[in-house]
From TrEMBL:
Keywords: Isomerase, tRNA processing. GO terms for biological process: tRNA pseudouridine synthesis. GO terms for molecular function: pseudouridine synthase activity; RNA binding; tRNA pseudouridine(38-40) synthase activity. It catalyses: uridine(38/39/40) in tRNA = pseudouridine(38/39/40) in tRNA. It is an enzyme of class 5 (isomerase). The gene is LOC107832631. InterPro entries: PsdUridine_synth_cat_dom_sf, PsdUridine_synth_TruA, PsdUridine_synth_TruA_a/b_dom, PsdUridine_synth_TruA_C, TruA/RsuA/RluB/E/F_N. This is tRNA pseudouridine synthase. Its EC number is 5.4.99.12. The lineage of its organism: Eukaryota, Viridiplantae, Streptophyta, Embryophyta, Tracheophyta. Belongs to the tRNA pseudouridine synthase TruA family.
């Protein structure tokens, strides 16, 4: 094939003139240009990530492990009596209370099925998240394998014909990420078998992974019940260690001016990729690195969060990994009923000591992907920078998600409860 010398020279010149343009793998990431006065006091994305991960997270993970075993409770941290938590699994065969909430017309034939509502407590550090994935140890995968023995004969034969394992199909109130624990996660499954006993269902799940997952309550419900669509609110708690690297005083968190995540926390190398944050180049980091704050007040975090209560807002700036169809409009709107922060202590069973923590409680009608973790990290960053109390509200109008902080570690997050009645302040842990 003949080539035109002039065209070849032109193409070569274009390539040389544009050789300085970085490729997709060499993309430079810049610090978001906030326009308010604390702009240069804010930690960069890299500094936020290092500060958040440089914490004794293993103590929080151990606390959640004891919670799943029934040795501790979340409400006990705040001196409240447990309302919905149970030391032993509650099994109810009486369906009246549930059927009243989810009425359904009498149906026969193939619609005459039995639906089970299962409330689970599980240790996030022992699983690769909720959602079932090939080759991973997930909560959904474990539960569905455990419930496989209760599927009806028709479905069992269908799975056998397709050379698929004998597993049930569950629906959950909200999928949790890897490392996130749950006090009372809600899921359901149904079967057309009439001989399935509640005690057998509980035993099948509890025996699957003792000490890592536990049935909190088990109930037969109407077939109209859906753990996700029927829910009216979700309840999360984030426990942040403030046994600071340099010490703590009077509700203030003191931090090192240069934290080293490699020395303080044995997190795996993929954690920064999972946080879905663009870490800046060193050259750009130097441009915004100055005399950064070294302490923050828990009361300041509480005031920042308080401005979110009682408002329907779009939290797309605080979300991560959303589908394109959910980037704008109502799909990103959430109504937060309750948002508070308080200082408390959690027991460390292994050494008999207590560790001071900041607990952040959030209750909303719904949460977006990684929204809680981003909201926690951003509130901490804004409090340290001395931003105005309405700083989180102002960030709603940002034009780029780098305006918010990278997600906080999943180790501190716990799904407390899911509500199917109207929100009631008595369900709150922090007054």
């Amino acid at each position: 094939m003949l080539r035109c010398p002039t065209a070849v020279r032109t193409l070569r010149n274009l390539m040389e003139n544009h050789s300085h343009i970085p490729s997709a793998h060499q993309k430079a990431h810049f610090h978001y240009n906030h326009t308010d006065s604390p702009n240069f006091s804010r930690w960069t994305a890299k500094e936020c990530y290092q500060f958040m991960y440089a914490r004794p997270w293993h103590k929080v993970v151990d606390f959640y492990a004891d919670m799943v075993k029934g040795h501790t409770s979340l409400s006990g941290l705040f001196g409240k009596e447990t309302q919905a938590e149970h030391e032993d699994a509650e099994i109810r065969g009486d369906e009246k209370s549930e059927v009243v909430s989810f009425p359904v017309k009498d149906r026969g034939g193939r619609w005459e099925r039995v639906t089970f509502k299962i409330v689970l407590s599980y240790h996030g550090g022992s699983f690769d998240g909720w959602q079932k994935q090939p080759g991973l140890n997930t909560v959904q995968g474990l539960v569905e394998r455990s419930l496989g023995q209760f599927v009806d004969e028709r479905k069992a034969q269908l799975l056998k014909d397709k050379n698929l394992p004998l597993e049930a199909c569950t629906v959950v109130a909200g999928r949790t990420d890897k490392g996130v624990s749950a006090s009372q996660q809600v899921c359901s499954f149904y079967t057309w078998r009439k001989d399935v006993k509640l005690q057998d269902v509980q035993d099948a799940i509890d025996k699957a992974a003792p000490g890592k997952i536990r049935v909190v309550s088990l109930t037969k419900v109407s077939r109209d019940f859906h753990p996700n669509f029927s829910a009216k609110w979700r309840h999360y708690l984030y426990i942040f260690p403030i046994d600071a690297l340099n010490g703590e005083q009077d509700g203030q968190i003191w931090i090192n001016s240069c934290t080293d995540v490699n020395q303080q926390n044995e997190c795996d190398k993929s954690a920064i990729e999972e946080s879905n944050v663009d870490v800046m180049d060193d050259d750009n980091d130097e441009l915004v690195h100055g005399n950064k704050p070294t302490m923050l007040e828990v009361s300041k975090v509480n005031r920042l969060l308080g401005h979110l209560e009682g408002k329907l807002l779009s939290y797309k700036m605080f979300a991560r990994d959303l589908k394109a169809s959910r980037n704008t409009g109502p799909p990103t709107e959430c109504f937060i009923f309750h948002a508070r922060a308080i200082e408390t202590s959690i027991p460390c069973v292994k050494d008999g000591s207590d560790m001071k923590t900041m607990c952040i409680e959030l209750i909303a009608n719904r949460f977006l992907r990684r929204m809680v973790r981003v909201l926690v990290a951003t509130a901490i960053r804004e409090a340290a920078a001395g931003a105005d109390d309405d700083a989180l509200l102002k960030l709603m109008d940002a034009t780029c998600r780098r305006a918010t902080a990278p997600p906080a570690p999943p180790d501190g997050l716990c799904m407390v409860d899911v509500g199917y009645t109207d929100y009631d302040r008595r369900n709150c842990l922090i007054p």
